[in-house]
């Protein structure tokens, strides 16, 4: 039976170790020996921790008392670790994913079984996928820039040729050319805002103060379209760690989008602040036309917009600020004919 059990263990691709309550290895398989370079006999005078789990990936020694495997062993618990390292006999280390399960005999806890796999190839594949996604995104962005800028440039060239042939300057043509130049400038400015590195200072800010300032700033634009802009806040002050101007920019973008999308004379936009567990939630709620379901998944893509003259870059910048600079989430819910809710979820201080 021992021979059959060992043959079964050796046929498994993952590394397997059995350790007793003193953290000594009592059995292992061929995959464990191949991955670590240690045979079972070499654990006779050493614990598993001393040989393959003594140091983390930063080169810091990890005492046995702080070892997650030892903790699971002593408490008879199950354990799953997705991101750790084991050390080889030659002094190198490799990324691992492993589980620890209690080993029972007649209802008594006698040790743990460690099952682990080398994650080197998977991590390399994941990195290649990330790099491919980045290249794909860059290609999509470049194609969008070429398309968006080529259109106004084509119009500008056409008007210049007309002026060259006629030898006259048409004021109407000049006005159109000016608007096309402004469109190009707007696209470039939004791309610069998206791409420039974040060097601003993070501070603890009261979100209510930021929103009140933005509401005051955007109120004149709302009134021009007869839109009621209001704010509803939780009683207690709520603080977030943020770059103040970037959060203002996020709110300005969301409110401006709601104003520009509104197509009714009695429109309303409400800014609602609440908190849930360790997060602050800022909702921009409008009763506008809503967003078609097919368009929701495309929001934030460069040069995709539900507005006639939109570039989609404003929402792309907004998502970049929330996700990458503030570790937050932008959640969008919308229903055609009823309105939209853009919820910004940020960590609370």
Give an account of the 3D structure.
This protein is α+β, with helices and mostly antiparallel strands and 349 residues long. It folds into three domains: 2-118, 2-Layer Sandwich (Beta-Lactamase); 124-195, Signal transduction histidine kinase, dimerisation/phosphotransfer (DHp) domain (Helix Hairpins, Orthogonal Bundle), CATH 1.10.287; 203-347, Heat Shock Protein 90 (2-Layer Sandwich), CATH 3.30.565. Helices cover 44% and strands 26% of the residues. The protein contains ten helices and twelve strands. It has helices at residues 2-10, 30-36, 48-52, 68-75, 120-166, 171-195, 207-224, 244-261, 293-296, 313-326, and strands spanning 15-20, 25-28, 79-87, 93-105, 108-118, 203-206, 228-232, 239-242, 268-276, 279-286, 329-335, 339-347. The strands form three sheets. The protein has a five-stranded antiparallel sheet with strand order 2-1-5-4-3. It is elongated and about 95 Å long. It starts with a helix and ends with a strand. 22% of the residues are buried. The model has no long low-confidence stretch (mean pLDDT 83).
* CATH class division of the largest domain: Alpha Beta
Rg value: 30 Å
* Architecture (CATH level 2) name of the largest domain: 2-Layer Sandwich
Structural class call reads alpha+beta
| Elements, N to C (H/E) | HEEHHHEEEHHEHEEHEEHHEE
Question: Tally the helices: what do you get?
Answer: 10
Nearest-integer average pLDDT: 83
Helical fraction equals 40-55%
Shape: elongated
Please outline the major beta sheet.
5 strands, antiparallel
Write the CATH homologous superfamily of the largest domain: Histidine kinase-like ATPase, C-terminal domain
Which residues form runs of ≥5 with pLDDT under 50?
A: none
Q: How many domains in all?
A: 3
């Amino acid at each position: 039976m021992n021979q059959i059990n060992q043959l079964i263990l050796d046929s498994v691709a993952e590394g397997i170790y059995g350790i007793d309550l003193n953290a000594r290895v009592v059995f292992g398989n061929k995959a464990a020996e191949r991955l670590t370079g240690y045979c079972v006999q070499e654990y006779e005078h050493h614990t598993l921790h001393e040989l393959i789990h003594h140091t983390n990936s930063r080169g810091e020694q990890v005492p046995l008392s702080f070892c997650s495997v030892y903790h699971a062993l002593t408490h008879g618990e199950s354990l799953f670790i997705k991101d750790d390292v084991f050390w080889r006999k030659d002094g190198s280390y490799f990324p691992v994913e492993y589980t620890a399960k209690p080993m029972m005999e007649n209802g008594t806890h006698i040790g743990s079984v460690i099952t682990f796999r080398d994650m080197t190839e998977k991590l390399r594949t994941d990195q290649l996928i990330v790099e491919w996604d980045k290249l794909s995104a860059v290609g999509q962005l470049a194609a969008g820039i070429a398309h968006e800028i080529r259109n106004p440039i084509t119009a500008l060239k056409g008007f210049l040729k007309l002026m060259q042939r006629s030898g006259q300057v048409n004021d109407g043509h000049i006005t159109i050319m000016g608007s096309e130049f402004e469109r190009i400038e707007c696209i470039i400015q939004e791309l610069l805002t998206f791409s420039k590195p974040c060097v601003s200072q993070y501070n603890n800010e009261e979100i209510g103060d930021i929103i009140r300032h933005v509401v005051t700033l955007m109120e004149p634009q709302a009134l021009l379209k007869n839109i009621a802009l209001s704010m509803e806040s939780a009683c207690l002050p709520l603080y977030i760690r943020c770059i103040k101007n970037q959060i203002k920019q996020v709110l300005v973008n969301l409110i401006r989008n709601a104003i520009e999308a509104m197509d009714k004379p009695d429109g309303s936009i409400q800014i609602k602040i609440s908190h849930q567990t360790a997060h602050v939630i800022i909702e921009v709620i409008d009763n506008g036309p809503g967003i078609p379901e097919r368009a929701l998944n495309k929001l934030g893509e460069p040069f995709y917009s539900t507005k006639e003259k939109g570039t989609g870059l404003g929402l792309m910048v907004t998502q970049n600020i929330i996700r990458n600079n503030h570790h937050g989430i932008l959640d969008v819910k919308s229903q055609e004919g009823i309105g939209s809710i853009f919820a910004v979820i940020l960590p609370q201080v």
